[in-house]
Write the structure tokens for this entry.
Amino acid sequence: MADATTPKWLNPSEMKAWRRYIIASRRLLEALDSDLAPHDVSMADYEILAQLSDAPDRRMRMSELADVAMLSRSRLSHRMKVMEKEGWVKREACPVDKRGYFAVMTPKGWRAIVAAAPDHVASVRSRFVDHLTKADQAVLAEIFDRVGNELRKSDLD
């Protein structure tokens, strides 16, 4: 009889699905990152710029940006330093909360994402979306919504 500490090992079908996901997702992110290289923008930078470009006044509280960009606050702080040097973003103190800061996209940051976005979307389309049927898209969206919801629940525990 197995005790509570014995792992529930993956069966061959589960292992195949897991390994294929890991390998494909890593290759996809590497390719998308490589495709952004001519714009001198990394995937992490692009995601931050994309979030800011959609935010009201192109600004977000740093804590909120870290959450939506799926970065730790220290990792976001590091990325912000790099992006500030590029002139894409700036930090502004929050007038209400003296400890809080806003990340604000600069005009140069706006130009960077506007320049990179068409190539990025083309890359996402050619490397991912074009290989999926409408049914595949629906299934993947449902799967990752379910997995994401479970992960968010465990983050709250």
User: Anything to note?
Assistant: The first strand starts at residue 59 and ends at 61. The chain has a mean pLDDT of 92. The chain has six helices and three strands. The domain at 36-125 is CATH 1.10.10.10 (Arc Repressor Mutant, subunit A).
